Amino acid sequence: MIMTNSEPTNASRNESAFRPIVGIDLGTTNSAVAFLRNGQPYIIPSANNERIIPSVILIDPGGKVIVGEDARSSLVAMPDRTIAAVKRRMGSDETIPIAGQKLLPQELSALILKELKSYVDELYGEGDKEAIITVPAYFTDSQRRATKEAGELAGFVVERIINEPTAAALAFGLDHLDEDRTFLVYDLGGGTFDVSVVEMMGGLLEVKASTGNNMLGGEDFDWALVDFLAEHMIGTQGVDPREDIRARALLKDEAEKVKKQLSSARSVSVALPLVTVKDNLPVGLTVEVSREQFVKLIEDKLNETIACVQTVLREAELKPQDIDEVLLVGGSTRIPRIHEIIAEVFGKLPRTDVNPDEAVALGAAVQAGLKSGALSNSGLVATDVAPYSMGIAVLKEGRGLRPKPGGFAPIIERNTTIPVTRTETFYTTAPGQTAVEIKVYQGEHEWVKSNHLLGEFLLDGIPENLNEQEKVEVTFRYNLNGILEVAAKCVSTDKEMNVTMQDGLDRHSRNAFQESAERLESLWNGVEADDDWEDEWDELTPLDLDEDDGDVEYVQPDLDDKQMRLEAERLLVRARELADTSDEAFRSEAGKVILLLQDALADSDTEQLRQAIDDAADLMIELEL
Question: Is 87 a catalytic residue?
């Protein structure tokens, strides 16, 4: 879709007013926000003094949005109400189901950013806040725009998006301004991998080349372990736990713990008394996982990162021995095997004085200081590069005798230093042609069908020249935010058309954006929750004792369909808690409750759900007595 430059917001017009500016690392696994104080970047902690928070969102049965550690701990208990790794879906128009709702990836990311904004508001008070948000260097145009929109939905003024390895280099460079060196940033996070070659000379920090993989990270290592554990259960118990949503979430949580423990231990024992249920009986898991086994599971993924390293060195026209330092960024770089392969490639160990979890957020705060002028006297200047080539569709020589449409003519090559303006001359395809369709693409393939469409427009009014083909000049202007402006001009008439390219997947209109903002604000404030039901929820206790006769019974108001589902989910959570007990009889009976409620929740029959709640309540009373 093509859109002209949008009207600036009131906040962006008022440049003279003080507006705090912060740096944000919106990560797949964890997120953090930082600010600049006395020329140095610092993390802004949460109210619980957490420096980084899990990028996990929970909408609890009462309709409350919870972000961070409490949400992460609910991934197993309430997998249908909890979402993680949203960053991997950024740029997609597909909605994500959560707690009976469907939200876009940028809307869910906005909830994480709202949580971070609450820390900023606590520090600075009310008022506009500007944010520099980082993205993987290899994020596409649509992913970058979705990230910017998430920041705006969260209430930030987002005027700059920067690459994560560049941010990490800024954090390092601020403390090494007097050193001239070339270093490589190896950034392996929870969901993405980036690698950049950066040269620092006299305070000028210049990114020479970047590459990466948007679908490679710690999440893949976790799922490799999940498959390993599941295969063990198939072999020993004859059941695949991945077919049970709760069991799958449980194994994912356990795999993440095992991965972290194997960074310091040679082997880890896994002992889960209840993973799933088979024939109304609990099925557990007991297995030993060694570091060697784990490395074997992920060796192909690690080799992919080294292939990217070799590519970026080649594009920067450097050899491994030309790299003075290797900086490891991202929590997944704590895996010992990564340190080993870096040493094998470069003949030196990577630096360990850079905090892999905080470097990107701190670097974003440095960029914020450069933008605001707070670091104008530091001598630090940073440049970045275009992550992809950008060009237009043209006729191209194919295998046949005639040129065929759909060829890709790059105008700005990948790894070109930005901001940049480039102009190329093209010709109409035949004499007498009075209009040309300009289709703009992003990618590296010689044919546009394998690249990403950014937008298209029509340049008409070309003279009907029957003698020769008309010249058309196409100009690309690519700014620091990764926003591309395209101009096409008929040379003989000077007629020109300028457009700012928007994501070819149809970006939201301002009305749709406003609707998203209002929906998220209501969700964040819990407005959509049924307050009367919350009162009833508070009155519900697992066991109420009738003082007259000593009998134990559930005291339960009349429930509508929505309330019954909430009650069933609450009973399901409690049953799972009981199922984790070491008593085998408890596990077996709790397993029956779990199956009963899961079947009822999967069916739309109201009476079946009501009966399941009654039966489950009776079983729970017996268990808890």
Answer: yes
Q: What is the rounded distance in angstroms from the CA atom of residue 535 to the CA atom of residue 590?
A: 28
Sequence-ordered list of residues with C-beta below 8 angstroms from that of 209, at least 6 positions apart, any chain: 196, 197, 312, 315, 316, 385, 415
Query: Above 50 in pLDDT, residue 170?
Result: yes
For residue 220, with 0-12 CB atoms within 10 Å meaning exposed, 13-18 middle and 19 or more buried, which class applies?
buried
Is it the case that residue 11 has pLDDT exceeding 50?
no
Q: What is the pLDDT of residues 340-368, one digit of tens each?
A: 999 999 999 999 788 999 999 999 999 99
Annotate 374-403 with b (16+ C-beta within 10 A) or e (fewer): bbeeeebebbbbbbbbbbbbbeeeeeeeee
Residue 529 confidence (pLDDT): 42
Q: pLDDT at residue 21 above 50?
A: yes
Catalytic residue among 107, 128, 141, 164: 164
On whether the CB atoms of residues 130 and 117 are closer than 8 A, the answer is no
The pLDDT > 90 percentage for the chain reads 56
* Residue in 87, 114, 117, 489 annotated catalytic: 87
Q: Can you give the pLDDT at residue 577?
A: 64
| Domains annotated on the chain, with CATH | 390-493 (2.60.34.10), 530-624 (no CATH)
Q: Which of 187, 358, 456, 503 does the annotation list as catalytic? A: 187
Summarised one tens digit per residue, pLDDT across range 521-573 is 889 987 544 444 344 334 333 333 333 443 433 333 344 566 667 667 767 77
DSSP tag of 603: S
To the query of whether residue 220 is one of the catalytic residues in this protein, the response is no
| Catalytic site residue from 25, 358, 503, 567 | 25
Does residue 419 have a cis bond before it (omega within 30 degrees)? yes
DSSP string, 311-371: HHHHHTT--GGG--EEEEESGGGGSHHHHHHHHHHHSSPPB-SS-TTTHHHHHHHHHHHHH
For the question of residue 25 being annotated catalytic, the response is yes
Per-residue pLDDT, averaged over 68-93, amounts to: 91
Q: Which string of DSSP letters, residue by residue, matches 144-191?
A: HHHHHHHHHHTT-EEEEEEEHHHHHHHHHHHT-TT--EEEEEEEE-SS
Residue 482: DSSP 8-state:
S
Is 141 tagged catalytic? no
